[in-house]
Amino acid sequence: MNTIPIAVTIAGSDSGGGAGIQADIKSMSANGVYAASVIAALTAQNTMGVTAIHDVPADFVAAQIDAVFSDLDVDAVKVGMLSRAETIGAVARGLRDYRARNIVLDPVMVATSGDLLLREDAVEALVCELFPLASLITPNLHEAARLTGTPLAESRKEIVAQAEALAETTIGAVLVKGGHAATGEAEDLLVWDGGRKWFSAPRIDTVNTHGTGCSLSSAIAAHLALGKPLAEAVDAAKTWLTGAIRASGELHVGQGHGPIHHFHELWSKPVRTPAV
Fold first, then answer.
1. Average pLDDT of 199-226?
2. 210 exposed, middle or buried (CB, 10 Å; 0-12, 13-18, 19+)?
3. Where are the domains of the chain?
4. Which class is 6-250 in CATH?
């Protein structure tokens, strides 16, 4: 039996440390669980953007899953961007074989601009193989529109319709993230069997939003690993994320869209010592 809850992230690496595996591990750690990882891709990335991607072979992704799940008693899993159908298949088989629980799937498939990041066969594999296994899927507004084949939602009514349509594709729940909406509040909608709940937080004026989606889904997985009910886990994760975004300006990392402050509740305000 675990002396500390364990969560695993299955995603890509971000060499700049703000998103992907690195953000997932920071988020899980900040929210009180032990974090393990399965790396599905390597990226050359910083706050300015991604310059190169190297996919990890599917058989090696499977080997990492075997190594982690055969030894660790995993309480929750976060799945991030998986760019190839072969990788998605390997992850789905591994999660089924080890009867993984509390699976939070962040379907990173559409850029903020609306551009599709995954090939059509990878999108189909994601929906057919991983959605049915997920306890929760967490699309943003662009991804929800792409997955439902409808225009980008511009109202609460349209978000509800997309969330309920997506809920029919999974045994679990759907959290549609409204962070990209042009409103004064950052509103997310959670839909599950027999329930619906909105989560709102003040929109914070900052450019430091790199990795927010990765961090939110990982924080939710952490709170599920801690044994919290789904709605409570989402609420705790969103409250933590709002604080991490609000404190992000303390870090001064990079020249572009900086990371959130994952450890804002744990660190004192950092002070950079001038070079001599």
1. 94
2. buried
3. 6-250
4. alpha beta
Tell me, what amino acid is at 251?
L
Residues of the chain above pLDDT 90, percent: 73
CB 19 within 8 A of CB 214: yes
The first and second tokens of residue 153, run together, are 């939602």
| Integer angstrom CA distances of residue 118 from 81, 148, 150, 211, 257 | 9, 16, 18, 18, 23
Q: Cite the active site residues.
A: 177, 209, 211-214
Distance, CA of 276 to CA of 273 (rounded, Å)? 9
- Residue 201 makes CB contacts below 8 A (sequence gap 6+) with 185, 186, 238, 239, 242
Cα separations in angstroms, 49 against 81, 178, 254 = 16, 22, 11
Residues near 172 by Cβ (< 8 Å), separated by ≥ 6? 103, 134, 135, 136, 137, 192
Report the greatest alpha carbon distance in the chain.
62
**Angle at CA of residue 175, ends 174 and 179, nearest 5°:** 150
Question: Is the predicted pLDDT of residue 113 greater than 50, yes or no?
Answer: no
Residue count of the chain? 276
> Residue 162 is encoded by which pair of tokens?
């997309």
Compute the distance between CA of residue 51 and CA of residue 56 in angstroms, rounded to an integer.
Answer: 17
